């Protein structure tokens, strides 16, 4: 039985730290097959932008500044996500025997693992088909429509994900809302309340009751173990690893040149 590392951050953290940890896990991968799964939370409402997005077209930066909402840029692709009252997951792996070397295959497999966790919550969910061209080409936020092979419930997106892959190594992370904040999402992404339609779901809505982080994470972890036939080993970062994460946070995610995409080729070292 394969063993995967499991990191559960039960204390919410800032957006720059959260993105630095995910990047560290990705950069630490080698040719030796290994997988880390992480679940985490956000200390305050935060907008994350996909690697290639134009911040001025995607996000209302003035609204975010005036309302104490942080903005970070991911190393993964995809569209704007508002992180608030959610479970965020990440999977970092170099195990091509499990995930193949294909981005689409690995994306679908991770979605299936998360679906197993949702089924342990007694939810009936499915993988979405191709989205409309307007969603793919436009600047609509992530939760305006399910993307291909994203997890949906009754036509609503429950999990929004993005991936970065280099050769045999990939990072996939995503947002699983516990509670919907549709009005706030509209506000940070220029969506008009009267004319815009969001196909956004949440675990609390789907289950018809409040859902907390720890309860849902336990089921997601069990679902991943069952689907992939693995056993999780809890992982804590050493002081040296923590210092490396802090270095990445400072060099990239606290750097306006990265966030504003003035330097999209910025590299980091640790």
Describe the structure.
With 270 residues, this protein is α/β, with parallel strands linked by helices. The chain has a single domain (2-259), classed as BirA Bifunctional Protein, domain 2 (2-Layer Sandwich). It is 36% helix and 22% strand. It has eleven helices and twelve strands. The chain has helices spanning 15-27, 55-58, 61-66, 96-99, 103-120, 133-137, 182-188, 203-207, 213-228, 239-253, 256-259, and strands at 2-8, 35-40, 46-49, 70-73, 81-83, 86-93, 126-127, 151-153, 156-157, 160-166, 169-177, 230-234. The protein has a six-stranded mixed sheet with strand order 10-11-6-2-1-12, with helices on both faces. α1 packs across α10 and α5 crosses α9 (213-228). The longest helix has 18 residues, at 103-120. The radius of gyration is 17 Å and the shape is globular. The two termini are 32 Å apart. The relative contact order is 0.20. The model has no long low-confidence stretch (mean pLDDT 93).
Short description:
The chain has helices at 15-27, 55-58, 61-66, 96-99, 103-120, 133-137, 182-188, 203-207, 213-228, 239-253, 256-259; strands at 2-8, 35-40, 46-49, 70-73, 81-83, 86-93, 126-127, 151-153, 156-157, 160-166, 169-177, 230-234.
The name CATH uses for the topology is BirA Bifunctional Protein, domain 2
User: Termini distance?
Assistant: 32 Å
Report the β-strand fraction as a percent range.
15-25%
Shape: globular
Question: What is the top-level CATH class?
Answer: Alpha Beta
Which class of secondary structure composition applies to the elements?
A: alpha/beta
Q: Tally the helices: what do you get? A: 11
Radius of gyration: 17 Å
How would a crystallographer describe the biggest sheet? 6 strands, mixed
CATH superfamily: Bira Bifunctional Protein, Domain 2
* Number of strand elements: 12
Domains, number: 1
Instruction: Return the CATH architecture.
Output: 2-Layer Sandwich
Helix content: 25-40%
Instruction: Give unreliable regions as ranges.
Output: none
User: What order do the SSEs take from the amino end to the carboxyl end, as H and E?
Assistant: EHEEHHEEEHHEHEEEEHHHEHH
Across the major sheet, the strand order is 10-11-6-2-1-12
Q: What's the pLDDT, averaged over the residues? A: 93
């Amino acid at each position: 039985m394969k063993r995967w590392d499991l990191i559960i951050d039960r204390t919410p953290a800032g957006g720059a730290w959260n993105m630095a940890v995910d990047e560290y896990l990705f950069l630490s991968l080698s040719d030796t097959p290994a997988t880390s799964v992480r679940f985490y939370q956000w200390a305050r409402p935060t907008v994350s932008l996909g690697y290639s997005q134009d911040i001025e077209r995607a996000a209302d930066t003035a609204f975010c500044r005036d309302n104490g909402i942080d903005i970070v840029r991911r190393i993964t692709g995809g569209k704007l996500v508002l992180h608030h009252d959610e479970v965020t997951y990440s999977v970092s792996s170099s195990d091509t025997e499990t995930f193949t070397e294909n981005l689409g295959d690995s994306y679908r497999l991770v979605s299936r693992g998360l679906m197993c966790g949702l089924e342990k919550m007694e939810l009936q969910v499915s993988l979405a088909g191709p989205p409309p061209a307007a969603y793919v080409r436009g600047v609509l936020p992530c939760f305006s429509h399910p993307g291909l092979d994203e997890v949906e419930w009754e036509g609503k997106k429950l999990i929004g994900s993005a991936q970065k892959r280099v050769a045999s190594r990939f990072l996939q992370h995503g947002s699983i809302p516990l509670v919907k904040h549709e009005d706030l999402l509209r506000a940070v992404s220029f969506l008009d309340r009267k004319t815009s339609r969001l196909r956004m779901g949440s675990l609390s809505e789907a289950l018809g009751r409040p859902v907390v982080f720890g309860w849902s994470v336990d089921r997601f972890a069990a679902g991943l173990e069952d689907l992939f036939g693995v056993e999780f080993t809890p992982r804590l970062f050493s002081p040296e690893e923590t210092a490396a994460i802090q270095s990445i946070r400072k060099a990239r995610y606290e750097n306006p040149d990265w966030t504003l995409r003035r330097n999209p080729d910025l590299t980091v070292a640790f």
